[in-house]
Recover the amino acids of this structure.
């Protein structure tokens, strides 16, 4: 097609090409799986077992992500701080944690840091044992500790991408450094990195499956226990994958809706 200026204009994809076929395929798969659950006792039994662990998966994710975000924010302030000691500590934390697999960090927190913390508490007069700290609390803290480093880098990138003139203008208006950060810079930073934060939340949700290696009865552990008792691997794995896919799609849609809301308010 020739444009008004005589140049070739790009052809607009047809309606057929722009149709969300991937979404239709997922919807069809959901209908088929739902039909099997509704009509097959075996599939219904597996779904019931997975639902028993779904709540724990959601709780671990819902607690770990805000903690990771808070830890990441503190680390971000350290990374951009003019105080050398704070910057060095934040840099050490980010570099070390990002260099370790999440599973290794779960083991370190659960079996090294928690016992050390119990010993330190006992030295101060407490009377605790390592068994007093539930495994769910350990793995939640481990996930928050691991993802705090990723959130720190995400927030640092968003914060440093803001024009320097905004901070200077805020200071010229009489705002303190803390007020400038809290009222001007951080709100814009979170809006800029919202898609990345949403992706990190999805990754944390999926990595929560790693807690099953410590016997925590999340949705993945429930599937493993069912498999070991019945040897029905195909049905349980298909349903497990479907549950995770449904959760991640819901999170992605929620993040996209939040992005659109911010975009409308900014317009």
């Amino acid at each position: 097609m020739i444009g008004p200026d005589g140049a070739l204009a790009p052809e607009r994809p047809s309606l057929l090409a722009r149709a969300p076929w991937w979404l239709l395929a997922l919807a069809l798969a959901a209908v088929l799986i739902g039909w099997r659950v509704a009509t097959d006792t075996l599939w219904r039994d597996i779904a019931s077992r997975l639902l028993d662990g779904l709540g724990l998966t959601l709780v671990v994710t819902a607690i770990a992500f805000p903690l990771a975000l808070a830890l990441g924010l503190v680390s971000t302030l350290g990374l951009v701080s003019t105080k050398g000691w704070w910057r060095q500590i934040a840099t050490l934390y980010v570099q070390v944690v990002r260099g370790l697999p999440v599973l290794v960090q779960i083991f370190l927190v659960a079996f090294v840091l928690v016992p050390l913390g119990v010993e330190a508490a006992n030295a101060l007069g407490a009377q605790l044992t390592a068994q007093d700290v539930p495994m769910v609390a350990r793995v939640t803290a481990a996930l928050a500790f691991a993802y705090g480093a990723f959130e720190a880098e995400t927030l640092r990138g968003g914060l440093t991408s803001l024009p320097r003139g905004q901070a200077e203008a805020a200071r010229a208006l009489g705002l303190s450094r803390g007020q400038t950060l809290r009222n001007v810079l951080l709100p814009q930073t979170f809006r800029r990195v919202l898609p990345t934060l949403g992706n990190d939340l999805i990754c944390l949700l999926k990595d929560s499956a790693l807690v099953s290696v410590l016997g925590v009865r999340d949705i993945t552990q429930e599937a493993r226990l069912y498999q070991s008792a019945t040897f029905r691997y195909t049905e349980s794995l298909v349903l497990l994958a479907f549950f995770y896919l449904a959760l991640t799609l819901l999170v992605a849609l929620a993040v996209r809706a939040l992005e659109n809301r911010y975009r409308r308010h900014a317009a």
